[in-house]
Amino acid sequence: MGNVRCLPAGAVLGAPEQAPYDVIVVTAAAPVVPPSLLQQLAPGGRIVVPVGSRHEQELVVATRTGQGLKQRTITRCAFVPLIGAEGFPADPRDDDGRRTGA
Fold first, then answer.
1. Predicted confidence (pLDDT) at residue 49 exceeds the cutoff of 50
2. How far is 35 from 98, CA to CA, in rounded Å?
3. Can you tell me the distance from the alpha carbon of 26 to that of 13, in angstroms, rounded to the nearest whole number?
4. How many CA atoms lie within 13 A of 25 on its CB side?
5. Domain membership flag for residue 27
6. pLDDT tens-place string over residues 54-80
7. Which pLDDT score, from 0 to 100, does residue 1 have?
8. Which spans in 12-92 are helix H?
9. Is residue 14 domain-resident?
10. Cβ proximity of 64 and 38 under 8 Å
11. Do the beta carbons of residue 67 and residue 44 sit within 8 Å?
């Protein structure tokens, strides 16, 4: 499949300079769906991301529609945490209540 690119994580989430994207798949848990990645979605585009606490999440699919964002939950899951500005602190002791799960 020549239309798929895997990009390493860096200081900025995603690759805004190459946006918009039809699909974004995030393989690390975030406290909320990262706003910067939502901005990189094309109209009709989807993002799949585990959302919740450091230890337990729900796999969320969000679709950008003409009316805004439509979200649905697929299943419970557990991924490694996304670290950084739109994720969790590097040190778990520094969590400041951004967690949404147990």
1. yes
2. 14
3. 10
4. 6
5. yes
6. 999 999 999 999 999 999 999 999 999
7. 55
8. 35-38
9. no
10. yes
11. no
Digit-coded pLDDT (tens) for 78-87: 999 999 989 9
Determine the 3-state secondary structure of 30 from DSSP: strand
Question: Given a cut of 80, is residue 94 above it in pLDDT?
Answer: no
Cβ pair 24, 42 in contact under 8 A: no
Asked whether residue 99 carries a pLDDT value surpassing 50, the answer given is no
Q: How are beta strands 57-65 and 68-77 bridged, if at all?
A: antiparallel
Residues 4/23, Cβ–Cβ less than 8 Å: no
Q: How many residues does the chain have?
A: 102
89, part of any domain:
no
- Report the domain count for the chain: 1
DSSP E strand stretches across the chain? 21-25, 41-52, 57-65, 68-77
- In this prediction, residue 44 carries a pLDDT of 97
Residue written as tokens 């520094």?
94
- Expressed as residue numbers, the domain containing 38 is 19-83
